[in-house]
Write a structure and sequence with these properties.
Length: 231
C-alpha cells in the first residue's frame, strides 16, 4: 500500500470550490490545521471516453521537499470531486487520477495561491490489465511501492498483482545505465527518461535488478513476452 501524507478529501463541501464562490473562502475552513505555506488542490475526475465523473477514483500527488520525496492520495467523492489539503505552495507537484488498475497521465502543477483547480481524467477503455497497448517500461523497485515508481508512472509500470519480474521467462538484452545531469527536483525524472531510452534502444520492455547510486542508475534490459502476473 502506498504511504500517504496528511491529506483529506471533503466531498461534502465540494460546492464551496465552484469558480464563483471559491474566492473569499478561508483555507482553515476547508483544511483544518493547515500550516502557512500550504494550500489546497481541488477539481473533478472524469472518464475521458464517456465524459462522466468517476466517483471512487483516487488522486495521487507527489513532490520533493528539502530533497525528500513526498506523496499524498485522496479519494474522489460521490459527486466526482476531490480536495487535497496540505499541499506546499510554490513547489512543482505531479498529480494524476487512478481507478482500479487504470491510471491517468500525470500533470505538473504549482500552487501559486492557496486554492488551485486541477481537473483530471483517465480512460476507462484503455489498457487496464494487459500491456499490449501500454508502451511504458516495466520496472519494479521495492515491489512497485518506491517513490520512483509512484512518481514516474508516465515512464515506468509496475502493477500490484505482478510477480517479481526477475522470475519471468525473459530474453536478456544487456546492461544499461544512465547518469544524472544537473540537480534539482527534475534530476531523477530526466535520468529515468534517459534510462528508458536506453532500454528501448535495445528493444527491451522491462528492466530487472535495477540499482541506484549517487547520481546514476543501472539494470539489466530484458524482453518479457508473458503477463508478469502469471510468472
Amino acid at each position: 500500500m502506498r504511504r500517504l501524507s496528511r491529506a483529506l478529501v471533503h466531498s461534502a463541501i465540494a460546492g464551496l470550490f465552484a469558480a464563483s464562490s471559491a474566492i473569499g473562502q478561508e483555507l482553515q475552513e476547508i483544511c483544518p490545521g493547515a500550516e502557512d505555506g500550504t494550500g489546497a488542490l481541488w477539481g473533478a475526475v472524469t472518464d475521458s471516453d464517456a465524459d462522466m465523473v468517476l466517483p471512487g477514483a483516487n488522486v495521487v500527488a507527489s513532490w520533493v521537499d528539502d530533497g525528500d520525496e513526498r506523496n499524498a492520495e485522496v479519494q474522489v467523492g460521490l459527486d466526482g470531486s476531490y480536495t487535497m489539503c496540505y499541499v506546499p505552495l510554490g513547489t512543482e507537484i505531479s498529480v494524476y487520477a487512478t481507478f482500479a488498475t487504470m491510471e491517468g497521465s500525470p500533470v505538473q502543477v504549482t500552487l501559486g495561491e492557496i486554492f488551485l483547480q486541477q481537473d483530471l481524467s483517465l480512460s476507462m477503455t484503455g489498457s487496464a490489465g494487459g500491456a499490449s497497448n501500454d508502451d511504458r517500461l516495466w520496472m519494479c523497485i521495492g515491489g512497485g511501492e518506491s517513490q520512483i515508481n509512484i512518481q514516474n508512472t508516465r515512464l515506468i509500470r509496475c502493477d500490484s498483482n505482478w510477480k517479481p519480474l526477475e522470475t519471468c521467462p525473459k530474453t536478456e538484452l544487456g546492461q544499461i545505465s544512465a547518469q544524472a545531469v544537473g540537480a534539482g527536483s527534475g534530476m531523477m525524472r530526466e535520468m529515468l527518461e534517459k534510462f528508458v531510452q536506453e532500454a528501448r534502444r535495445l528493444d527491451a520492455n522491462a528492466v530487472i535488478n535495477p540499482r541506484f547510486s549517487r547520481g546514476s542508475m543501472s539494470g539489466e534490459a530484458v524482453l518479457i513476452e508473458v503477463d508478469p502476473s502469471t510468472c
